[in-house]
Amino acid sequence: MARKNSDAAARAASGGGLNPRWWVPTALGLMLLGLVWVMTYYISSGAYPIPNVDAINIVIGFAFIMVGFIMMTRWK
Q1: What pLDDT does residue 9 have?
Q2: Helix 56-73 and helix 23-43: axis angle, to 10°?
Q3: pLDDT (tens digit, 9 = 90+) per residue, 33-55?
Q4: Rounded to the nearest 5°, which phi and psi values hold at 74?
Q5: CA 51, CA 44: separation in Å to the nearest integer?
Q6: Do the Cβ atoms of 25 and 71 come closer than 8 Å?
Q7: What string of DSSP letters covers 54-67?
Q8: How far apart are CA 57 and CA 76, in angstroms?
Q9: Nearest by Cα to 35 from 9, 64, 8
Q10: For the chain, what is the mean pLDDT?
């Protein structure tokens, strides 16, 4: 167990391997933005957020969600 702590301390001291402070809030924000995007599309029956692109709004919403999810897999 002491070895894990010393490895973590060495990484923190060298500055490598740790994400910047904005990483997690950005990832969560992207996932929430995607959720709100898809919900807005369904609640407005396709009139919002971008009219006249129909199902592409779902793709855009899920793209935001997936980018946030991929960012969370890189979180250290």
Answers
A1: 63
A2: 160
A3: 999 999 999 999 999 999 999 89
A4: -95, 0
A5: 10
A6: no
A7: TTHHHHHHHHHHHH
A8: 31
A9: 64
A10: 88
